[in-house]
Amino acid sequence: MENSKKAFRNPIRAAIATLLMGVVMRILHWPFSEGIIFISFAAILILYGLRFLKKEEKKTVDLIKMALVLFWTTNGLLTILDFTHTLFFQIGTAFTFIVWFAMEGTSYFMSKEDGVKNSTTEIIWNFVMVIGVITLICGGLMKLLTWDYAIPTLTLGLTIVTSYILKDIFTAPNNNEDDINNEELYS
């Protein structure tokens, strides 16, 4: 099963990219950041829930991923609403992430077809994603510590991660009519 055949893939990626922009806006104390984060978390929860419901065959790993998204987005929504008792959702997120990583882990990002290996370009893009996440985290920490060059570092990390998330939307091959109509069979 190819990642590009999953239902609601592009809208979920767009919601995640918007969430990242909202988080950076919140770190920078820009207006409307909390609203953007709230809407992004709600969109991710709804879109992933619809994706899960569309699946005909639900495996254990699918249930774990749905629980992970449920805990993570609920924690995010309640945190934005200043709900003080989110520890349960944080523990649930951590536990389900560990279980998901043990079951599927990095193989989620690799090619699923037998005998087909990831191209050099895919490996480079995955490496760029790791660098982007590290840069984003470092920029956020630098901003919290009021260090010099925090804003450029944060912006660079955001740009890299957002580019990675959105690259498939703009570089997706043209699907024929059968692929579009049977999208739910591949999710």
Briefly summarize what is shown.
The protein is mostly helical and 187 residues long. It has helices spanning 9-27, 33-54, 60-80, 87-103, 120-144, 150-171, 177-181.
Structural description of this entry:
- The protein has 187 residues and is an all-alpha fold.
- The longest helix has 25 residues, at 120-144.
- It has helices spanning 9-27, 33-54, 60-80, 87-103, 120-144, 150-171, 177-181.
- α1 (9-27) runs antiparallel to α2 (33-54) and α2 runs antiparallel to α3.
- The chain is globular and about 50 Å long.
* Structural class label: mainly alpha
Shape: globular
Individual helix count: 7
Secondary-structure element order, N to C: HHHHHHH
Largest sheet: none
Summed over residues and divided by their number, the pLDDT gives a mean of: 81
Tell me the fraction of residues in β-strands, as a range. under 5%
In terms of topology, how is this protein built?
Layout: H1 9-27, H2 33-54, H3 60-80, H4 87-103, H5 120-144, H6 150-171, H7 177-181
Helix pairs in contact: 1-2, 1-6, 2-3, 3-4, 5-6
Structural features:
187 residues; mainly alpha; disordered C terminus
